[in-house]
Amino acid sequence: MATGHSSKPDLLAILEDRGYRSTRQRRDVVERLELKEEGFSAEEVRGELPGVGRATVYRTIKLLVEAG
Question: Dihedrals φ, ψ of 52, to 5°?
Answer without folding.
Answer: -115, 130
